[in-house]
Write a structure and sequence with these properties.
There is one protein chain. The protein is of the alpha/beta class and about 650 residues long. Helix content is about 35%, strand content about 10%. Helix 13 packs across helix 14. The longest helix is centred in the C-terminal third of the chain and has 33 residues. It starts with 20 loop residues before the first strand and ends in a 12-residue tail after the last helix. The structure holds 4-O-methyl-alpha-D-glucopyranuronic acid (GCV).
Amino acid sequence: MAYTKCWLAYPAIAGAACADLTVSVEGAGPILDSARAELARGLAGLYGAALTDVADGDIRLGVDTALDPEGYRIHAENGRCTIEGGSDTGVLYGVFALLRAAQMAGCAWKDLTVQEEKAPANRMRMLNHWDNLDGSIERGYSGESFFFKDDVVLVDEARLADYARMLASVGINAIAINNVNVKHAATWLITDRYYAPLRRYLEIFGAYGVKIYLCINFAATMDLGGLDTCDPCDPAVAAWWKEKAADVWANLPDLGGFLVKADSEGRPGPFTYNRTQADGANMLADAVAPYGGHIIWRCFVYNCQQDWRDTKIDRACAGYNAFMPLDGQFRDNVTLQIKNGPMDFQVREPVSPLIGGLQHTHIMVEFQIAQEYTGQQRHVCYLMPWFRQILDTDLRTRPDNGTVAALIRGAGNGMAAVTNTGNDDNWTGHDLAAANLYGFGRLCYDTTLDPGAIADEWLRLTYGDNPPVEQTLHSILMRSWPAYEKYTAPLGVGWMVNPNYHYGPNVDGYEYSRWGCYHRASFDGIGIDRTPSGSDYCHQYAPELAEMYASTDTCPEELILFFHHLPYDYRLKSGKTVLQHIYDTHFEGAEEAARFYDEFMGLKPYLDEETFARMEARFAHQKEHACEWRDVINTYFYRKTGVEDAHGRKIYH
Ligand code: GCV
């Protein structure tokens, strides 16, 4: 086996071997076959028990349509177990939940008691792959694509099936397989050049309840259709897409739909023709509607040709300005996909005001588990605590419950994440990055889960009952996002990275660029004024939040430089100046990264050699690289201010 099974290894539960078990499956079909096969795999691994089919088995799998279609109910006691799902997919989810519960309990089969009924918090639970047809992955940090290579769609049956199992095991029900930047051969995915292998994808993933989406090129009418326009209001364009949709769904009948990046970072879109984003999305929605197709339209629309000299333009305002006026104008089979923050997956940002603003439009929040700005899977950075904070944020735009988690419930809504997988043996580059893949799925399905409890599950399922490993890695995972935030960009300001690669410190890397992401560090202070005296971005929020962000007294300090330009000697609630806070957090963050390394080294006796070596190299790099961050940032601010560290620690002059 060339690659790991991640959390589906089903390591034996010590002292729990049991006699063979029987199962009865009511119903038939590929998803129920997957459920039965998974149960067999799990029971063989955990208890060494083979599974045979009988009429009245120890374990009974069946559908109860009274349950949520993707929900399940488990009752296990005294060696007998019933798993019911609201559909075949619900049964499959129930099987994974039983196997998870069995591993968490760590007892003999006959002693296992499970009473659990669940329904998903979100209808759409999706991963976006940024895989290119040549095999590269945009912002990929774990090898190359396992979907594409040299403009060919790969059909590695075993790996695809294992991936589908991983997705279903945490409740992911959709994936877009190609990069949102659709260029070159990728434009041809919706032609008969690629239908045959894609059909196989639909079967493999369909057997695990996972819908496949394709990213399309909004200018396909020109690149494929020979038209000289992609104006969404041109009848020839609409007719071409209608015909194309008929052809696509005739060949790929279970396709979920299209994901579209338009008018963004050089991609074509309706703005070229003075049309709105709704014109573009609705034209496609009408084309795919007869086949039950779905259009996911991204809201990452901003001016990437900004002049840094112009301090009036604020990229943070762009998404809301482009989409809020269109609320209610989108077809029912359109979902707007909105990044969690108004900028771009920084280690800390406020929640995008568009998420709360739209009242009559389906929305999905887009997260990123590919660690583009959070250490690129070389640093450990467990993101579930951050995602949970986002989900819990109340945007105060609904009288009852305005939390993000509540706003994304219901048909047509949900969560997506840019995924962190590739063809590395461990799938995610850093072994611990798999906790983000696992955790994201679990959090989509149940937005109330505690990030620490998710980490515990992932650790137990991945490493078995191994207390030193579980305790040490739990502690490292839970401290990792705060540590990363400390030694990188301070107080919500973001962006102090090397341009293009987004790795490593470069304080002014983007400061004089066209990308609209500035920190405005100067002789007099740092941060962006987004109050009424600046860009007034804060008034895109409901009045309570606008007021809160606009005042330095009430703005949460972890975001204070996102909203305010403050002097270096401004005193934070801790009594420290902004400058001393920067120095302190950078020293503390680097110390924490060094501790991660030392703590991890203590696990040598408890991990296999290969796993240990792979992780040791990453922790060693993180420790060193955190020092680089510390020194570059601290020196930069020392040179801006001429003020020494209050505690006399080493800052390079
Ligand atoms: C796929 C950021 C990334 C780009 C990405 C873009 C997007 O700008 O750096 O690589 O493009 O976001 O989300 O579309």
